[in-house]
Amino acid sequence: MTPLDGALWLIRHRFATFPADHPAVPRCAGLHKTCDGSRGKHPAVAFTRGWTLNEAKARETFGRGLRNPAVAVGACSGPEGWRLLVVDSDRPGAIEDVASACGEHWPATMRVRTAKGHHDYLWYPPALKLGNGLGQLQGQFDGDVRAGNAYVIGPGALHATGVLYELDDPERPPVQAPAWLLDALVTKPTYAARRTRWTNASRPAPSGTRGLVAFVLDSPQGKRNNRLFWAACRAAEDARDGHEDAQDALLSAAVQAGLSEREAAATIRSAYQRTGATT
Fold first, then answer.
1. Range 3-185 classified under CATH 3.90.930
2. pLDDT (tens digit, 9 = 90+) per residue, 87-113?
3. Of these four, 20, 50, 181, 214, which has the most CB atoms within 10 Å of its CB?
4. Is the pLDDT of residue 192 over 60?
């Protein structure tokens, strides 16, 4: 499946499609001023309004040069106006493990295999207000969710590692998101979940300001913001308990790791608010 094939498949199945950067072009085609190195994932247009469901437009757009097909999640509408939710597992079977831990079964649904795991497409009722938050799954799920003002890279796209995004079964449509998943996503995480240690068995959880700073500095591309948020939550909890406040040190480490100062400051502020601390 070529990028154009993927774009046309998405459009024929009523998924709002737009072009993103392709790792084979010399320079990143994303709209951002500075590429963070995650080639193949940056929108080449303003995705909230630059998407299309028109095949002729897609042929013209993807015929002008290499671009990865992507999906404007919030612009997609399913049966009876239901909205699109994409569950992004960072490893194969990650969401199945969560379902099993909850005593549930993960449904067979539209799945796109990615470089690390898979994207599962599901429909959810429009009355729910979902975004990219994990709710009670925070600290339990190796991955993310995408809903509302969000996007995902689609089938036919090429990852920077050379892996092609592929449909697991082109004939399988998205199914309704299971109730237990929706309940988890709209429920705030418990205090215990917020304190869950970083889920990486090969890396011990850091402690103290120096450990948290080193943890942020060692963040790989695509994980910087998540790791900063986790470290800031730990720092906020430590500060609330009377220990050294590591906000400034974490901000400096995040900028050194590649985040913008504005983005890093917003993430740290969000973490402190989430834990009940102040900034």
1. no
2. 999 999 999 999 998 899 999 999 999
3. 20
4. no
Using the 8-state DSSP alphabet, how is residue 107 labeled? P
Which of these, 117, 73, 95, 274, lies nearest to 180 by C-alpha position?
A: 95
Q: Which of 147, 139, 141, 144 is nearest to 100 (CA)?
A: 141
CB 155 within 8 A of CB 165: yes
pLDDT tens for 160-189 read 999 999 999 999 999 999 999 999 998 877
Q: What is the pLDDT of residue 193?
A: 46
**What's the mean pLDDT in 191-198?**
44
How many Cβ atoms are within 10 Å of 261's Cβ, its own excluded?
Answer: 11
Residues 106 and 87: beta-carbon distance below 8 Å: no
Domain ranges of the chain: 3-185, 197-274
**Residue 46, SS3?**
coil
Separation CA 69–CA 20 (nearest Å)? 6
Alpha-carbon span 220 to 9, nearest angstrom: 32
Burial 56-69 (b: 16+ CB within 10 A, else e): eebeebbeeebbbb
Question: What are the structure tokens assigned to 157, written together?
Answer: 């796209």
DSSP string, 120-163: EEEEE-TTS---S--GGGTTT-SEEEE-SS-EEE-TT-B-TTSP
- pLDDT score of 85: 97
Q: Is 181 exposed, middle or buried (0-12, 13-18, 19+ CB in 10 A)?
A: buried
pLDDT at 180: 92
Q: What is the pLDDT of residue 247?
A: 85
Q: How far is CA 277 from CA 46, 72, 174, 182, 229, in A?
A: 35, 35, 40, 28, 14
